[in-house]
Amino acid sequence: MALKRGLFRLAETYRPSRPHIRARLLATQSAANNEERQSKNQTHFGFQTVDENEKTKKVHEVFETVAGKYDLMNDVMSFGIHRVWKDIFMARLAPMPETNLLDMAGGTGDITFRYIKYLQNLRSKPTEGARSSVTVCDINQAMLDVGKVRAERLGYTKESSGVDIDWLCADAEQLPVADDTYTAYTIAFGIRNCTHIDKVLEEAYRVLKPGGRFMCLEFSQIPNEALQWAYDQYSFQVIPVLGQLVAGQWKPYQYLVESIRQFPNQEKFKMMIEDAGFRQVAYENLTFGTVAIHSGFKI
């Protein structure tokens, strides 16, 4: 372990100018740190190793800092493609009028608003048919506050939308929700920020009714090496710069690209979902695997 650290410090001294090389060096150090995490209750925050309780605080600070510019930066970073990903995600969920949804990490409302619009398109009048509901849940109140303002601006109230909307500030690893409550659980671009992914999945399973569906939209791994190289160039050279120019924040967006590299690939994440108890687990790659939709059922 000491030798690995010494080599890494030596490599850091020369500061390679190409971000993808630096990313690989940092990933090597991260892999070495994994050995220590098992016995010291440590985890990763991007490419850093931190105490588990410290990660929760750091992630909270990241999203509190960027909440006001979060949606704008999503448009800038993805050239608007995140909207297409989320539209596909909702189409795959295909909610029915009686759906009771928990939109986890849904702070600013992107998934919830698509859910409401999808349901409205199923019926001629918002008040017709079975009553649907959604609980927008996020660990960060600042993100929820942004979502509430957007909902009011878009006219998505309980009365006008035909959907009961609740806002809940809570930790995905410890939900203050009874067992077997929801028929659907979604989490979009949020699970990689959680300290214990396995606990998030266990909680998702617990709060879903039998037959309920879990769906996750998250950045993933591109299987093509050439495309991954190009993606690394963009991620490490451009995204933090955009964060500084648009949101006045470099570090949160440096963390963003690092956290994506730390997240399990499609197959590993599929196995984690199965380990939580879900069945008929499958995934679909979007944009060459830049993101993936994972789905499973509580049976």
TrEMBL record:
CDD domains from the UniProt entry: AdoMet_MTases
Main location: mitochondrion
Chain segments annotated as transmembrane: none
Cellular component, GO, one term: extrinsic component of mitochondrial inner membrane
Record's keyword terms, sorted: Membrane, Methyltransferase, Mitochondrion, Mitochondrion inner membrane, S-adenosyl-L-methionine, Transferase, Ubiquinone biosynthesis
Keyword Nucleus belongs to the record: no
Pathway annotation from the record: Cofactor biosynthesis; ubiquinone biosynthesis
Catalysed reaction, written as an equation: a 2-methoxy-6-(all-trans-polyprenyl)benzene-1,4-diol + S-adenosyl-L-methionine = a 5-methoxy-2-methyl-3-(all-trans-polyprenyl)benzene-1,4-diol + S-adenosyl-L-homocysteine + H(+)
Binding-site residues, S-adenosyl-L-methionine: T108, D138, D171, A172
Gene3D superfamilies reported in the protein's UniProt record: Vaccinia Virus protein VP39
Keyword Kinase listed: no
UniProt function note: Methyltransferase required for the conversion of 2-polyprenyl-6-methoxy-1,4-benzoquinol (DDMQH2) to 2-polyprenyl-3-methyl-6-methoxy-1,4-benzoquinol (DMQH2).
Family of this protein: Belongs to the class I-like SAM-binding methyltransferase superfamily. MenG/UbiE family.
Name of the protein: 2-methoxy-6-polyprenyl-1,4-benzoquinol methylase, mitochondrial
Natural source organism: Bombyx mori (Silk moth)
Gene: 101743462
